[in-house]
Amino acid sequence: MKIGERTMNKIIIREERKEDYQATELMTMRAFWNIHSPGCNEHLLVHKLRESEDYLPGISRVAELDGKIVGAIFYSKAWVIDEANVHNVITFGPLAVDPMAQSYGVGGMLLRETFKLAKEEGYKGIIIVGEPEYYPKYGFVTCDKFNISDAGGYNYDALMAYELQENGFAGIKGKLKESEVFEQCEDEDEIEEFTRQFPYYEPLTLKCQWLHKEKLGRICNVQKNQYTIQFWEMQIPAKLKGKFFDGKKTFPVVGDYVTFEYNTKGDSLILEVCERKSILKRPFPNDHAIRKVKEQEMVANADIAFIVTSINEDFSVNRIIRYMTVANEGGVKPVVILTKADLTDNVDAYIEQVKEVEKDVDICAISVTTGFGMEELEKYLKPGNTIALLGSSGVGKSTLVNALIGRDIMATKTIREADSKGRHTTTYRQMFVLESGFTIIDTPGMREISISNVTKGLEETFDDIIELSRNCKFSNCEHKSEPGCAVKKAVKDGILTEKRLKLYQRLK
Description:
The protein has 4 domains: 5-188, Aminopeptidase, CATH 3.40.630.30; 207-273, CATH 2.40.50.140; 279-442, P-loop containing nucleotide triphosphate hydrolases (Rossmann fold, 3-Layer(aba) Sandwich), CATH 3.40.50.300; 462-507, Orthogonal Bundle (Ribonucleotide Reductase Protein R1, domain 1), CATH 1.10.40. Helix 1 (21-32) packs antiparallel against helix 2 (42-49), helix 5 (317-329) packs across helix 8 (455-461) and helix 8 crosses helix 9. It contains 11 helices and 22 strands. The longest helix has 15 residues, at 106-120. It has helices at 21-32, 42-49, 106-120, 188-195, 317-329, 347-357, 397-405, 455-461, 463-469, 486-492, 498-507, and strands spanning 12-14, 61-65, 68-81, 86-97, 125-129, 141-142, 148-149, 159-163, 174-178, 215-223, 226-231, 234-240, 257-261, 268-273, 279-287, 292-300, 304-310, 333-339, 362-365, 386-390, 430-433, 439-442.
């Protein structure tokens, strides 16, 4: 659900009903997810607050749009205590607005309506710990103006107060005390257990996410200088802030988490690329004569690379190993997917060709057409996993994406029957987030891929050869005709295949 200014007059501010409880908790969870820490606990706080004797339902409210809860504010009792007196005040928290409804004034509507209600009930004032760049525009000031501190005696910009009555804080000073329920929502096991009843959202641990006042999203599409950010269910057009062009900033690619300033009327502004856990690069030689090498960054933050190849004349173990090497270099687990298994009576022969040169790699032979082998993919389709698809054009990547998503979202074309060459289909990288919690990134077909400058990837792909070479007589042994070569001895003894060694030598 995406709302705009024209729908604001349709929002209803009302009391929460029992049948709203779970929807309100889900909305609150979405509002605070990954903002202050991985995941959040505010949805559990709402759940517990309703059962507390300190809860004030009479002035708490939810915002409804087209039958859906898009915002909520929860009030509770609070106290300011000095050496001799206990002064009754109120607080609220959380104030939550669904990410899809943010930046349209829903929070302001909730504040204004509940301020009116609280004033009518005779409450003197509100004290909160909140966002100091947001609440002052609604009349909040820092508590030091009233000689009020937090429970530890400290003051800071986030500790703010609002007078509901004229001179509402006159004669009130001391330390703030909130309901004990705010301290009862910190148990990580309890939070995890409570969160299981809601749709899966990935808890993120990113350094940048707690340093910004902006939004956190993920790049789902890049076309030239135009970026698209996945922000919950929205896809937001965006461009780079000028500082990216000073040569010091990492440019975003599909799969990157980024902070951005949201613009409801045009391109949003990408501010920062968050640290990456993995990066798939396409190395390719630029100038053979002087041995310069450039790398094209393709996909960030993938967990698994589906190396997709079809069972036909296009099948190439050499190409599969090249893709595996690139995946290993980027810190991504490679999984070989042999598509169109319905076109052969001897699937095992193709599997054995791969196993002959890389015995430990995961291999799945499938047919999207018949459903053969598709259940083997389920162990990789876990909530939180990001899967990047690599392979030549026409091998079935887009068809596989459609099957996994459950609808025809990608245009597909088959390999030409005459020469098994792929017709180009996907022309740019695209990311799809599924309701079940995993993410798919489809990439343009790459028939040939260089692996220059991927030392780490080679070492991981051919770790057995690297380990054997440590026992060679000469440290610079090329494993050809040198005396005392442990690698050639392993081939002779049947420990290592000649085919695997030759492939390593070609790629190296």
